[in-house]
Write a structure and sequence with these properties.
By secondary structure, this protein is mostly beta strands. The chain has 4 domains: about 40 residues, no CATH class; about 110 residues, Immunoglobulins (Immunoglobulin-like, Sandwich), CATH 2.60.40; about 120 residues, Immunoglobulin-like (Sandwich); about 250 residues, Rossmann fold. Helices cover about 15% and strands about 35% of the residues. It has 5 helices and 35 strands. Helix 1 packs parallel to helix 4, helix 2 packs parallel to helix 3 and helix 4 crosses helix 5. The protein is globular, with a radius of gyration of 36 Å. About 35% of the residues are buried. The N terminus is likely disordered.
Length: about 575
């Protein structure tokens, strides 16, 4: 704020009889004025056009790409800062703090001056993070704030990254073999090839690995252009084959030809040299018959047969956490236990598994905090209504920085007269929809909560069909559900279109739609745009449903007019 010093003169009328000035001077018949000079602060900084700072594209980048801060490693937190308002953002700073306990061996840049960010301007921000050699195992919880001179800040975000203490590499020659071009005996003046297998048998990656071949005796000559080999990064258990070609001249006086392999790595401490020798007149195999075997380290990871799909294992873990992202996940599978007129064929097979695994992806991959995830399986009407109301209120308290993810796997039905689509709780009969959850009411409640974004995933059909028999016990024909208007910042991914059913993928124990939703999240690590996700799900579900289930199933995407033209560029992560 600018401060203007204003000097004013205050006229004070003094009563008669008061002596003021030189000794003996009377002022009884006059009023005396006294000038008093004072200062006051006046705020003259008026902001007429407001900036709107937005943070997107938060990523963590590390050298060995294991998504951790390793000892003796440089890493970076990166994001894009955009001014989407009409005014300048002045004297912008990025402030980084570490939440919780400090981590020994961790350092980072705590504050950066960004300067002025003009309207429509984008700035890519990089925050260096480093782990020293004495870094300890733990979790670094960063809070990143973008502050503006007048308090017109961007919303802060948090990022959690694991730290990993130093693990020693061990670079060794795991195996070696000498050979000649055509096989047979080693002879003077004829090429001899040495093939070695260099391996890292330690517990940490080895960087800047090099190998140098040394011929120790005179009258031995190298036939390659150089005796140095630059291997670079050698991960734990990784091997690298190296070749070295040489010979001994006819002046050579010894029976054996010694060769040394000098190994080195970044620290100069964790590499073991190797000395080898080959005898003249030794019978060797030809190069095509050379077989190299490495040293066994930790047991190799074996793909063990499992009763669960691959998307249920190895769920990607993102270091980025979204404090204001909320997820409500519902999987309604068991309808027959609650309703006597239904058989188990009317249950929605795998819906519980769909919901449980999606909730895991929301937590691990999409950065939703544990306290902001609600998972309901076989939910009643009361449970569904209460929790929809709850997340709407919670998002409303958080404001526009909040985001809602709503997932539902289960039965849906349209009203027979109005074709209004309903989600069916497990305790609601398909013949009486009074207690069912009207889909439009859910959309309306979520969009009117004041949240900044709503993403809906529906692995359900609303035609009266289902993954098996559906709720056909109460319906003779399928119906096309009414298309309700979508409002707010909302995008809806639906499993099927019109009269189609939302079908299972039995081999994967998921709904077909949910399986390909999870598969894309797993393959991309969550780094996928809404447009890419929609295209991937639509293409794969449409094809695989015909191939596996022999039925059409074409996913659909609905968006509000507010986000038309921009939603495809949104990111899930």
């Amino acid at each position: 704020m600018k401060t203007l010093q204003v000097f004013s003169t205050l006229m004070i009328l003094l009563p008669a009889g008061i002596i003021f000035g030189q000794t003996g001077t009377s002022t009884s018949e006059k009023s005396i004025t006294k000038q008093i000079t004072y200062t006051r602060n006046v705020n003259t900084n008026v902001v007429k056009l407001l900036p709107d700072l937005q943070v997107t594209g938060q990523t963590f980048i590390d050298q060995n790409k294991n998504n951790m801060i390793d000892a003796d490693e440089e890493a970076y937190i990166k994001f894009r800062l955009s001014n989407r308002g009409e005014g300048e953002a002045q004297q912008v700073k990025v402030k980084v703090t570490l939440l919780g306990e400090p981590l020994r061996g961790l350092s980072f840049t705590g504050e950066q001056d960004i300067g002025t960010v003009y309207p429509t301007q984008n700035k890519d921000i990089t925050i260096p993070v480093r782990g020293s050699m004495d870094l300890v195992n733990g979790v670094a919880k960063f809070r990143i704030e973008t502050l503006e001179k007048n308090g017109l800040d961007a919303y802060p975000f948090e990022m959690e990254v694991q730290s990993k203490e130093f693990a020693k590499p061990e670079v060794v020659v795991a195996d070696a073999v000498f050979s000649t071009e055509d096989g047979g005996k080693v002879q003077m003046n004829y090429p001899i090839n040495l093939k070695v297998l260099v391996q890292n048998t330690g517990k940490g990656d080895a960087r800047n690995v090099k190998a140098v071949f040394m011929l120790e005796n005179a009258n031995c000559i190298m036939l390659d252009e150089t005796n140095e080999r630059d291997i670079g990064l050698l991960r734990v258990g990784e091997t690298r084959e190296l070749d070295f070609t040489f010979t001994a001249t006819r002046r050579y006086e010894f029976d054996k030809i010694p060769v040394s392999i000098i190994l080195s790595e970044n620290y100069g401490l964790y590499a073991e040299n190797k000395s080898l020798s080959v005898g003249l007149e030794d019978n060797l195999v030809g190069t095509t018959a050379v077989v190299i075997k490495g040293i066994d380290t930790a047991p190799a990871e074996v793909a063990v047969a499992s009763l669960v799909a691959e998307v249920d294992r190895n769920i990607p873990v993102s270091p980025l956490k979204h404090p204001s992202r909320i997820a409500l996940v519902i999987g309604n599978e068991d309808y027959s236990s609650r309703q006597r007129d239904l058989t188990s064929e009317s249950d929605v097979k795998f819906a519980r598994n769909d919901a449980r695994i999606f909730a895991e992806y929301a937590r691990k991959t999409l950065g939703v905090k544990d306290e902001n995830i609600t998972l309901l399986t076989d939910a009643t009407a009361g449970e569904m209504e209460q929790n929809i109301e709850l997340i709407s209120k919670l998002a409303g308290r958080m404001g526009k920085e909040s985001e809602i993810i709503f997932y539902y796997a289960g039965h849906g039905l349209p009203d027979q007269l109005t074709q209004t689509p309903y989600m069916i709780p497990v305790d609601v009969s398909g013949s009486n929809l009074e207690s069912a959850i009207k889909l439009y009411d859910v959309y309306k409640k979520l969009s009117e909560s004041g949240t900044g974004r709503v993403t809906v995933f529906l692995d359900a059909c609303f035609s009266g069909g289902g993954r098996e028999a559906g709720l056909l016990a109460v319906r003779s024909v399928k119906q096309v559900p009414r298309e309700d208007q979508v409002t707010g910042n909302m995008v809806i991914f639906s499993a099927s279109t019109g009269e189609q059913s939302s079908l299972p993928y039995k081999d994967k124990q998921h709904g077909m739609f949910t399986y390909y939703l999870l598969k894309k999240l797993q393959d991309s690590g969550g780094e996928v745009s809404y447009g890419e996700l929609g295209d991937y799900i639509s293409k794969n579900v449409s094809v695989e449903s015909l191939r596996i289930n022999k039925q059409e199933q074409d996913p659909a995407i609905k968006v509000s007019s507010v986000v038309e033209g921009m939603w495809k560029e949104w990111k899930l992560k």
